[in-house]
Structure formats: structure tokens, C-alpha cells
Amino acid sequence: MTVAAAVLPGTFTNGVARGKVEILQFIRDRTAVVFTFAFPAMLLLLFGTIFGDSYDDTGVSVAQVYTASMIAYGALNTGFITMGSGLALDREDGTLKRLRGTPITSTAYLIGKLILVFVLSVAEVAMLLLVGVLVYDMPLPDASHWLTFVWLFLLSVIVCTLCGVAVSAIVKHARSAGAILNVPVVALQFVSGVFIHPITQLPTWLITVASFFPVKWMSQGFRYVFLPDSMKQYEAAGQWELGRTALVLGAWCVIGLVLCLTTFRWTEKDR
To answer: Using CA atoms, how far apart are residues 3 and 116, in angstroms rounded to an integer?
Structure first.
């Protein structure tokens, strides 16, 4: 009598299972939960309180603009920093080395991390919108704008996650991850129109530099979703440029994927 060979779970199944583990580990870290969700909301409350004026002839408050723009900050903070620091920690404490001896492939591991980032990003967006709607009376968009939000949000999460994986290769110690990863994050917030709006207040050359990176297009796209059409006059080109936004984010997805494939390693010795 022939005994059927056991069929091992596939890469996607292992990835989903790993994603559940990642989520449970995150929830158990209460400090991480509080700061991941509370910090962006606190920044929004501070900016909305300090800059309480409205834009001329639009009826849109500065706080509402910050609510839309900071969704990009939430995706960048969650995808780039959570992925970059988490991967560096897993590599340093031996988690990746142990997983290497299991059926978990590098693809399955990254799928699990992506699931964690996606869940956290959705929760963070919900938190920011809750503050924007309840505190700053920001109206929610119609159905067509929500469709734009879906593809824009998915591309933003994928881009930030892939870039977080790639940059983790230069993080030698988990304790230094925050310092290394926060430098580009903070810099991009200021030059990409997240913390400074209208972006036209910045020098032209600085706007040009920001245009090569995804954060400018992410924040601009989210402003299109949640703000009235009259606000496009405050963008660098005077238009929302959704087509260019999709092209830039799509290009960064390819760049991020290539960087991941060439830089990912299980241990520090895999160089």
C-alpha cells in the first residue's frame, strides 16, 4: 500500500500564516501599539491647533489639508520604518536565521511583513480620518474619489514596504534603526508638502528634488481624494496630476522590488 507524501503549504499560505504571527507579536507590544497610532494623531492635533486658518475662497481649513496630507505620512511611517526596523531586529536576534531552516521562504516572510504593514496602515488611516472628521469637520469624499483612494493607498503601502526592506540592508544594529530610518522620513515630509503647504512656499529646485521621490505624489494624491477641486491651485503644477502619480508610484514599486531582490539577506554574514 502506497503512503501519499505530505503536501507542504505553499508560499502564499505560509506568508498569510506568518502575517498572523507578525500581527499578534505587534499587538502584544503595547508600547509599539500606542506610539504607532498615537504619534501621527498627536501631530495632526498639534498642526491643526497651531495652524487654524482657512485657505482663501475655498472654505477648507489648514487642519483638513493636514489630515489628507498626513495619510501619506502614516503610510511612510508604518511601511518604511516598521518594515526596516522590524527586519533589522529579526536579523539581529536570530529570527531570520531560525526561519531559514523552516519551509518559510524569503517571499513568504516578506508577505507576512506586508500583511502586518497593510493592517497597521489601514488602522492608522482610520485613526487620522477619525480625528479629521470629528475634530476638524472634514467631509468624506464621494464614491469615485474612494476608488482613487484604493489604488493610491495600495501603491503607497507597497512602495513604502519595499523601500523599507531594501534600506534594512544598511542597518547593522536594530538599536540604530530608528535614527537611520527617521532621517529620510522627516526630510521627505518637509520637502514633499506634508508638513509645509502650499508646497509652492518651497524653492523650485527643492520641489524638483522632491518630485523624484514617492512621498510628494502620495500626499498630493491623498489631497485630491479628500479635498475639493478648488485646492488644486495650491499644488506645484496647479493640477492634481493623478496619471503622473500612478506612473511615479508604479516606477518606485519596480525599483523597490529590484532593490529587495538584490539586498535581502537572512543573516549579517549573507553579504
So the answer is: 38
